[in-house]
Amino acid sequence: MASGVGSHYQGDIARSMERWDLNKKRESWGWENKAPLKDGRFSREEVEAVGYRGKLCMVNVKGNAVKEGAVYDVELDKWEEMPQGMVAGWNGPAATMDEDVIYVIDEVKGRLSKYDGEKDCWEKVIELEQLKRAEQITAGRGKICAISAKGEKIIVVDVRDKPARFWEVAPPPGMEVVAVHVLPRMISRQH
């Protein structure tokens, strides 16, 4: 957890980074301090980090705005500058597929793109009117699921298909979607 914003802002808390390691024995569970962010001004808005190839990547503001990016190397416990191409194209909600590919939706253009780490650039996957105003996305099993239109729409994009295909899932009448997750397949054990 990298901290930052809130009604009781404090600079040292805004820079803080902590980890809860579930691999430890239960009796050893607890928050561990990790390398802090370089300065508290980075954390201007609530933005989720995404796991990408053993690192956590995050930007400091949502949407199409001038922003900074930071990359936390989990193994080395240190923060790095985000590559220029990565931060330049991070114009909306982001998610990773199996921590190997980052996807982002430009919430103004409705463009779903994926990051090419070798070329440090974003490649367009599909552009859809339905993806405009996307607020949150998740990725799993070859699909991107996006919440848009203030929780009134869920758009699913199958990125395995070429060209990518999509469909809309309507939330139950009178309900608003606030988050979407792709859960792992669970196998029930017969006793």
TrEMBL record:
Highest taxon listed in the record's lineage: Eukaryota
InterPro entries, A to Z: Kelch-typ_b-propeller
PANTHER family per record: F-BOX/KELCH-REPEAT PROTEIN SKIP25, OS06G0711700 PROTEIN
Protein name in the entry: F-box/kelch-repeat protein SKIP25-like
Source organism: Gossypium aridum
Lineage: Eukaryota, Viridiplantae, Streptophyta, Embryophyta, Tracheophyta
